[in-house]
Structures are given as C-alpha cells and as structure tokens.
Give the backbone structure.
Amino acid sequence: MSNSAVYLDHNATTALDLRVLDAMLPFLQHPQGNPTSRHSFGRHARQAVENARAQVADTVGAHPTQVVFTSGGTEADNLAIQGVAAAQAPTSIAVSTIEHPAVYRPAQYLMGRGWKIARIQVDENGRIALDSLNEVLQQKTALVSVMAANNETGVLQDIPAIAEICRRHGALLHTDAVQALGKIALDFNALGANAMSLSAHKIHGPQGAGALVLDKRVDIRPLLYGGGQEKGLRSGTENIAAIVGFGLACELAQRELNDRIATIENLRNRLETGLRRLGATIFGGESARLPNTSFFAFPNIEGETLVVAMDKKGFAIASGSACSSDSTEPSHVLLAMGVDPEFARGAVRVSLGADNTAQQIDGFLLALENELLRLKRMAALAV
Ligand code: PLP
C-alpha cells in the first residue's frame, strides 16, 4: 500500500530497509536448501544463517554461539521465561509491573503451574525501584525479567545495577531489549543479564524474526521439540530470508547508530518543545529515555479520540501500547507509575524514526494544535 500519511509509530513496527529487502530477495526467489541438508544448497543456506548469527551477535557484543533465532520478540520472551521455568522445580519468578505482555503473560501462565509471580514496582518516573527488587528477592527467585527500554514511555532501566542485585541473590536476569535494539548501544556482557530478547521488525528488518541471546550457563528447555535446530532450543526449519534480513538490519543499525540517534534526538526535542507549549504532560520525561519516544497526554482529552483524529489528518500515532491497542483500558505502564487512570486514558505515543523530518514534526504539531482547539470547542458546546 502506498501511503502519503506521516508514520510516527516506529515502536510498533518499522518499514523494511530496502538494503535489507535486497539481501533477502535471493533467499525468496531462488531454490533454497534446508540448512540441515548436506548438499551445496544446504551448505549455502547454513552459511547465510551463520553469517546473520555473527551479525546479530556483533551488534550486541555477544558471541555467535549465544544467539538463538526465534520468530520474534514474543517467542524470545516466552522461551526465556517458560524455558527457564521448565528446567527446574517451581519457586518464584519476578517481573516488573511495566513489562510487555510477551513477558507478563507467560509469567501469568506459569502461576497456574506452581510458580509464584512477584511484581517489581517502578517509581513515578517509570524506573525500577531497586528497593522493591531487593524486597522481592528475599524469597527464592529463579528468574527476574526487567525490560531494557519500555515500549510506551521509552524509559531506560539500569540493567547493570539490576543484574548485580540479581547476582547477589542467585537469580537469573532476563531483559527484553526489543525496543532498545537499534536505538541505543547494547552490550550483552556489559548489561550483565543472562538472557536478552531481540526483534527484527523494530529495526527496519522483517517481521517474524528475532533472537534470544543466552549466557551459556543458563539451564533452559525449548518451547518446541522437533528436528533439534538452534542447538535443540528452537526446532523448526529456519526462516532463512527473515534471518538474513535480521542480520543485515542489525549490522546497519550498529553502523548507523550514532547518526540515527543524532537525527532522532533533534526531532524529538523539536516535538517535545512544541508539545510542552501546547500543555502536554510527558510521561517519564524526567528519566533517561530512548531518543525516539514521546508518551504524553493532555487533560480531558481521550487518547483514542486523538489517535483517530490525527489519523484523519494524515499522522499515524499510537494510544497506549501498540500490541494491545484494541483494549480501552488505560496503559498498565502509566498505572504502575501512579498516573491517575482518567489522565492515563489520554495517553498517546509518538515514536520517531530516522526517516522522519523536521517538516513532518512541525506539520504534526500544527495539526495537533488545531485538533486540540476543535476538541475543546466541542467540549465547551456540550456543557
Ligand atoms: N517486547 C517489547 C518491549 C515490544 O515492544 C514488543 C513488540 O511490540 C515485543 C516484545 C514483541 O515483539 P515481536 O513483535 O517481535 O513478537
């Protein structure tokens, strides 16, 4: 679909980079071997997968043997949580109150299977409260899961400090770095986590590819049993084209990271200066955040209403989390930060990409200002 609207929803998904598409096409157009086959076709496919594994590993400072390819971030999160749980007798798993459903739903599922689930609180700025983590870890905990960057607010967590606390208590740490990848520098070893989830489609790679990066000491069982691919952790014939695309998307994100950050940060500053002028509250605005994300609300204005109105004006933004946008419940992330539920209903998210321009931001701010005026006029007529 060709679309002249302005895309401001890069935390939901991103357009495939044409260089990535070019790298993928031969693997879709020509007969491909199965990477497990011994003939030349099979060897070629295997080499493509291993090349991509090295690209992903290099981008996050890991060793290629630590990268397990999955169908995306959701599967990586599920593999980390269910896979670690399956390898031991039930004790407790601790997840933060701001996790993506791909983390908290598998944790909820385990609750019915003998596991206790503890919730780690965040403060009003969306940062993990380390005293809450310490308190939760007083009980024997197999695994802690805290995301590196939140998909709604963009708030970054101090993963090295969290990892240190987990280590002291003998708990493994998983971090969902799906939103952090390609937006900030990521180093698996420096973070100190034992497992880290990644996804291709948030970094201009294809949908349907991702990885779990694993510290080799982690005892983990697969979700899927079959041909034993990915060292037995993810059976099923590899999605070679998507994996190749993921590998190149990682390499490009790493090579262009500083330029992308500089461009996006400038745009976000321009956006937020305008938003504050219009009276917006920016959630997590006091915290270190992803450079591309702005999550904000105006008093007495429904987020859903604003999203629909801005869509009509040619701007694609999100209300609440992209993956649960069919729900009208206020964002669980904002509720966890102590935001008033009524105010939280007003939240909308702009997530920028390096392909956005200053002109688009100015156009968005003007359209938003007009819409706010229109909504206020309508509200005044209604009383
Ligand atoms: N984790 C976070 C923080 C996300 O934002 C998303 C997607 O929005 C996911 C996990 C799921 O990733 P995928 O869409 O690749 O399954």
User: Anything to note?
Assistant: The longest helix spans residues 358-382. Residues 72-74, 77, 100, 102, 147, 151, 176, 178-179, 199, 201, 210, 322-323 surround pyridoxal-5'-phosphate (CB under 6 Å). The chain has 13 helices and twelve strands.
